[in-house]
């Protein structure tokens, strides 16, 4: 499957990046299936994470923002109906809801609590990564489920 002029071929714990006539082999054994942030960092299209200053909005409720974010460093607050719903820490992911709903809208407002660096996957890359690395898909579902459990505990 071609992605940005590159072709990724998965072989066991390795990925061959075929770019034009050059072939690069990347060892994925160091990327734990339990660390979705590492997968997001590896597959993001941009060469480096996005940087947000403390207090800066990452997205607002209702924004069409089809990205899954991973916190490389710092903390992000998620606000719903003017109330702090959750603080996302280094290594956590957020924003996945907009990727799985047809309208692509965010349900919460995300604000950088501290200066932070965020890796991200846009929808086409997210779908590619889910297809190529099913354990990543399970970790995204687990992240979503963990949030839902915390909400249910508050009821």
Please supply descriptive tags for the structure shown above.
155 residues; disordered N terminus; 4-stranded antiparallel β-sheet; 4 helices
Outline of this structure?
With 155 residues, this protein is of the alpha+beta class. Helices cover 28% and strands 37% of the residues.
Low-confidence sequence ranges:
1-34
Helix-strand category = alpha+beta
Mean of residue pLDDT? 78
How are the strands of the largest sheet arranged?
1-2-3-4
Distance between the termini: 44 Å
Order of helices and strands: EEEEHEEEEEEHEEHH
Number of helices: 4
Give your account of this protein's structure:
- This protein has 155 residues and is of the alpha+beta class.
- It has helices at 36-43, 97-100, 123-132, 134-154; strands at residues 2-3, 6-11, 14-19, 22-27, 50-52, 57-59, 67-73, 76-80, 83-88, 93-94, 109-112, 116-122.
- The chain has a four-stranded antiparallel beta sheet with strand order 1-2-3-4, covered by helices on one side.
- Helix 3 crosses helix 4 (134-154).
- The N and C termini lie far apart (44 Å).
- The model is unreliable at 1-34 (pLDDT under 50).
SSE layout and pairings?
Blueprint: E1 2-3, E2 6-11, E3 14-19, E4 22-27, H1 36-43, E5 50-52, E6 57-59, E7 67-73, E8 76-80, E9 83-88, E10 93-94, H2 97-100, E11 109-112, E12 116-122, H3 123-132, H4 134-154
Antiparallel strand pairs: 1-2, 2-3, 3-4, 5-12, 6-11, 7-10, 7-12, 8-9, 8-11
Helix pairs in contact: 3-4
């Amino acid at each position: 499957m071609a992605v940005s002029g590159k072709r990724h071929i998965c072989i066991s714990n390795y990925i061959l990046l075929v770019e034009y006539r050059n072939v690069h082999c990347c060892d994925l054994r160091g990327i734990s299936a339990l660390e979705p942030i590492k997968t997001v960092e590896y597959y993001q299209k941009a060469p480096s994470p996005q940087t947000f200053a403390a207090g800066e909005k990452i997205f607002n409720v209702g924004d069409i923002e089809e990205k899954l974010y991973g916190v490389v460093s710092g903390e992000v607050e998620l606000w719903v109906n003017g109330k702090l719903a959750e603080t996302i820490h280094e290594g956590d992911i957020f924003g996945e809801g907009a990727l799985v709903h047809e309208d692509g809208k965010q349900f919460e407002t995300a604000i950088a609590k501290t200066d932070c660096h965020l890796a991200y996957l846009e929808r086409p890359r997210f779908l590619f990564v889910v297809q190529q690395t099913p354990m990543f898909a399970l970790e995204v579902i687990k992240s979503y489920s963990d949030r839902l459990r915390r909400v249910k505990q508050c009821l």
